[in-house]
Every structure is written in C-alpha cells, then in structure tokens.
C-alpha cells in the first residue's frame, strides 16, 4: 500500500532564483526549509533511453528526476534543481509573471514534496500558502490558486531502483503579496519591532522583481505598494553576458558568493564584475523606490531588505539611500517562505477551532 503523509500546512516560495519549501512537521522538528535552484527543464529521452544511459537513478535532492501528470492528464518528464546545474545544462529558468501556469512550476513543487517525503506514495496538503509580486498579486492570485489546487501524480525512481507513482492532493492554497510574508516573519522574530509607531518600509529583492511597501502607525500607506521589473536576474544576465559563461553557472556562483568560477579549464575572477553589477542594481532600485515614494520617502525611519539579494545588496543599497536606515533582516532569503508558513499555521488553526 505504500506510505501516506498528511501535511497540515506548509509554505512554498517558488522564487526566480531559489525554491523554498517548509511544512509543519519541519517546523516542529526545527528543520530549515528545503532550498534548491529554481530550475526545471523537460527531458526528451524515453524511459528506455534513460535506463540505457544510466539515468534511472534514485530520486533525491541532487537528482530531482521526475515525471509529472498535469490536470490535462498529459505526462511531462523533467529534471529539476541542482541536477540541471550539475549536468552543465543551459536554460531551465523562467522569469515570466505567469510562470505558475507552466508544467515546470508544477514539477518544482512536486519534486520538492517528494524530496521531503521520499518514501511516500501519497502526500496530502491541507493548507499551502505562497506568494506573488505585489504588482501582480491582484490579477494573478486567483489563477495561481486554481493552478495548484487539486490532485496530481508523479513518477520517480525509489531507492530500490523501482519506479513509484506518487499521488498528491493540495486541498487549499492561499496567495499573499510576497513582501507581506517577510514582514510577518520579521515581526514574529523581533520583539522590539514596533510597527504601530514606526514609519517602516520593506523592499523585497527577488530574482525578477523588486517589491516595496511602507507602513505608518501600523497601516499600509495606500500609495506605497509597488513592484519594479528589476532583480537579481539583472546581475546574473549582465555577468553572464560580460564573461560569456552560461547563466546557470553564474547564478550558482553568485548565490554561493564565489569569487571565482572555473570555465573551459580556466579559473576566472568574477568578484569585480559582480560588485559592479550589484552597484548598478542598487542604483536602479533606489531610483525606482524614490520615484514611487517621492512624497514620503524622507519620512521613513527604516527600510528592511528581504529576498534572495538582500545580504548581497545591503552594503550597496546603504550607499544609495544615504541617511535612511537600511537593514537586511535575519534569514532574508527565507523570510518570505517562513512568513508563508506562519500565515498557513494561523489559517489552519483557526479552521480547526471552527
């Protein structure tokens, strides 16, 4: 019969550079979120070809090889995450606003769940909270909810070498603005934070977009939410074009804060060009923020930086914003998904009491 797993609630952040996933079981056992590169690419080899090539290897975080059945009953064969980087594959990234509609995004979520529960052939999720950029939240939240709610199947190779069919049920999905998840996490972590009195703002530097919103006395300033189409992908692309090296390799090196990268049997220094691109991105973020918040930016006491680029960009943003306090919050790359988990927990517990 296999093993069934019931997940009460979880947070899922399919970022443009990194995917993050955490469940209530992981929270209860103090585990960190699962993270892996936000890459998925369809494979063209048949099942026989894969076995002949030795690709019928057991599923794991390093070998996310998965076939998924979408709602149209069609099967799609994907490689996901670290496997794409390790195989020196190009492509696999998606910077489109409606990327959630793609089979690749479904493959990332199902691969993440099966990585957490490799022995399960049935995975049930009651509440899943995820997020969208502020600019696109209102127009896309319904589509994203409809996309991922329901029943799905996958095929993976178990540790014993046999192919296993896994069935997934996602009961309810809640889609929130991305920066709101980070703020919820920050308030939960910092007992000294007083959003009811402070003029505080959040800037969420993601892969494709940078989101912002500002609060005054606990209320969102109506004209403050914005989303700009700039993010860490600008850095990845610029460095890749400058050095003529595949963007996936550059993304991995930048995220891991490497000073050099080996390509064509040659070790190349990337630190100077990466810092230059950081500075250019920080300048563009400042310009976008100043333009959106020109009526009140001088009144902001502090700006909290979250997202995948927070730690890397904070020193450069401090130079651009001058006297306004800039702080990268703890765990900035994980802040959104941990905030989603908190929101999912609140919703789940409320419904259990009703």
Automatic annotation (TrEMBL):
The keyword Cell cycle applies. Keywords: Cell cycle, Cell division. Residues 11-181 form the Actin-like protein N-terminal domain. It comes from the Bacteria. The keyword Cell cycle applies. SUPFAM superfamilies: Actin-like ATPase domain. GO terms for biological process: cell division. Residues 202-318 form the Actin homologue MreB-like C-terminal domain. This is Actin-like ATPase involved in cell division. It comes from Halobacteroides halobius (strain ATCC 35273 / DSM 5150 / MD-1). The lineage of its organism: Bacteria, Bacillati, Bacillota, Clostridia, Halanaerobiales.
